[in-house]
Amino acid sequence: MTEPVPPLDQRRLRLTSVLPVWVLAVIGAVLVLTLTQKDSFAWLLLVFVLCVLVSFVLQLITATKDGLVERISIASSGAFVVVLVTAVVLLAR
Q1: Which of 28, 55, 67, 78 is deepest in the core (most CB within 10 A)?
Q2: Membrane-crossing residues (predicted)?
Q3: What is the pLDDT of residues 56-88, one digit of tens each?
């Protein structure tokens, strides 16, 4: 049986497992905006799917079940917001 993770460790886990997903989403969004001329939305969808997969992998690497759903939700929601803003920019073009 695993012991509960102290709050300070939870905060550090959240930072180390959520921020990389957000950074990946921003980098992917910038690449989609700058490099794609055609099928930009398909590439944007691929960026979001990749972010969700990386989020799950990072959570599995931490091997901590306390707060798992919260960290996955935060990481995926942040990536979704980045993709949503990028989609609005693509529509405005």
Answers
A1: 55
A2: 12-35, 41-61, 73-92
A3: 999 888 888 888 888 899 999 999 999 999 999
| pLDDT higher than threshold 60 for residue 5 | no
The token pair at 60 is 């599995």
CA-to-CA distance for 22 and 14, rounded, in angstroms?
A: 12
Distance between CA atoms of residues 7 and 31, nearest Å: 36
Residues 71 and 18: beta-carbon distance below 8 Å: yes
What pLDDT, on the 0 to 100 scale, is given for residue 7?
Answer: 63
The answer to whether position 2 is within a domain reads: no
- The token duo for 43 is 């590439």
- Give the Cα separation of 54 and 76 in Å (integer): 10
Q: How many CA atoms lie within 13 A of 81 on its CB side?
A: 8
Sign for the CA dihedral angle at 49, 24, 78, 53 comes to positive
Total domains, the chain: 1
